[in-house]
Amino acid sequence: WMDDFRRFLDEREEIFPVPEERFSRLFSEFMHTGRTSLNSADKYFWFEGNELKACFISFWLDVPRNASAAEILQRKQRWDSYLQAFNSVASLYTHGAVHTSELWVQAEVFGALFSSSVLTAGIVVVLGFASALLFTRNITLPFFVTLSALGSLSGL
């Protein structure tokens, strides 16, 4: 929306960035008549009354959708660090920036599912071994049950 606002100002022979005393009027005009991508400009902003409280900006990163969860989370960490640094020096009007992405969520869910699956598999193997040992009182059978379970799990 920022580039669209700049074009909107260029068409009216206004300067960018807009001087503070003219920002509200010009921005309000952009909100009601300007377009951003395929959407009306007002889809990108949150107002309370006539006061702009927040906005969102979309960024496209060069991260393949099939990248590993570790690579995706590494990129997320870089954004976390960048926004932490940005917010630490941001003015009263621009602090509180956050970021989100479906890709971040998918990578975190995958990591959580993987770790809980490994934990569950470990519990199943230990309980299977202990149960077979308890009921058969023979070390050979639980050993083979455990090997069989590990073989099945390794195929997953």
UniProtKB/TrEMBL annotation:
Entry annotated with the keyword Transmembrane: yes
Transmembrane feature ranges: 109-135
Keywords, ordered alphabetically: Membrane, Transmembrane, Transmembrane helix
Protein name listed in UniProt: SSD domain-containing protein
